[in-house]
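Milestone M4 deliverable, item 7.
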Amino acid sequence: MGISPTSDEAWMRYALRLAQRAEQQGEVPVGAILVKDDKCIAEGWNASISQHDPSAHAEIIALREAGKKLANYRLVNTTLYVTLEPCVMCMGAISQARISRLVFGAADPKRGAVFSAIALADASFLNHRIAWQNGVLASECATLLKDFFRARR
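Output delivered:
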């Protein structure tokens, strides 16, 4: 069974709601959700400031929760939805977790590590390839981030 654009959009809308939670807590508004067999198994939103933890990105929080729930660090046959293109740290964790598919909204030209600033998704030195798709609800994802940073300046 293939993934339909409608379900990708529905999951991304869920991730956007998580990003709004981050924003309400004064965090950079990024949300992530991990899906397996068309069910949410974990979620996260940025919490680096509140947790005093530079690794508390939305993706890392979701991966940690999923690992505990599944009692396995390998999260095979899962799709990670995230509102912003993952950074280098998050792409490393996504690869180590053996995520099957990554779907993200807004590209991050300055720090994106899927294809924008660096192309880790296709790096030959990684032993795991991740199918990825960008641009799902990109405008909504980018607007949330732009509005957040505009308000902070």
